[in-house]
Amino acid sequence: MVNGKVCLVTGAASGIGRAIALAYGRHGGRVIVSDVGREGGEETAAQVRAAGAEAQFVAADVSRADDCRQLVERTLAAFGRLDVACNNAGIAGEMAPTADYPIDVWQQVIAVNLSGVFYGMKYQIPELLKTRGAIVNMASILGQVGFANAPAYTAAKHGVLGLTKVAALDYAAQGLRVNAVGPAFIRTPMIAGLGADAAAHEQLVALHPAGRLGEPEEVAELVLWLSSSHASFVNGAYYPVDGAYLAR
């Protein structure tokens, strides 16, 4: 589905990002694995290579615009082009009511989850226009609805949807596609803390009419499709992967 394409994934040291990198590799992509976590990122790249695909790890903090610029430069140096970018990096932040939310945590969550997507696209788009490529931004079900005590995360993910739509409108005529994916609660290290005990886990499961949490690979399959030519007329869209969470 992405055979021969150069695919960049941020936040790929674990969880959904790792699953996306592996999916790209399994389907013939040449993968740039990026994260702030070097150990996990190198492990993801090793797993992609073990599956028979080319992969390199590049450390980057997406909350820093210059890191995002250098990430694209390193991608070009490694593989000579960029065909697909998945802006997946994100953090959960703390849980607190809006008026009690720590300002420093608000700034950090917005910097990674929203500004990081903007910085990524800013430097990815000029190269993707050359290849008529695709961007997939990782939003959330919380890009569509609210969630008590999560003002920063919810605001950032709503912002990701807005950015996605604007970028799609800006560049659709030039052949660039920009879409967003919205996972519900997925079984990842980031979610593990929310469901640390059995009762908390059951509360999370109960939010999903499907009766379970999602798996990273289920999100990765949608990202893979959106990244491929099979989705050639899909642009500016938002696709939840949520076990009917938003259907209630």
Model description:
It is built from eight helices and seven strands. By secondary structure, it is α/β, with parallel strands linked by helices. The longest helix has 29 residues. The protein has a seven-stranded parallel beta sheet, with helices on both faces. The model has no long low-confidence stretch (mean pLDDT 96). The radius of gyration is 17 Å and the shape is globular. It has one domain: 3-Layer(aba) Sandwich (Rossmann fold), CATH 3.40.50. Helices cover 46% and strands 14% of the residues.
- The CATH superfamily label reads NAD(P)-binding Rossmann-like Domain
Shape: globular
Radius of gyration over all CA atoms, rounded: 17 Å
Low-confidence sequence ranges: none
Please write the CATH class name.
Alpha Beta
Would you list the SSEs in sequence order as H and E? EHEHEHEHEHEHHHE
Q: Would you identify the CATH architecture?
A: 3-Layer(aba) Sandwich
- The name CATH uses for the topology is Rossmann fold
Largest β-sheet summary: 7 strands, parallel
Total domain modules: 1
Which class of secondary structure composition applies to the elements? alpha/beta
**Number of DSSP helical runs:** 8
The number of strands is 7
Oligomer: single chain
**What's the average pLDDT?**
96
List the strand order in the largest sheet.
Answer: 3-2-1-4-5-6-7
The share of residues in helices is 40-55%
Distance between the termini: 33 Å
How much β-strand is present in the residues?
Answer: 5-15%
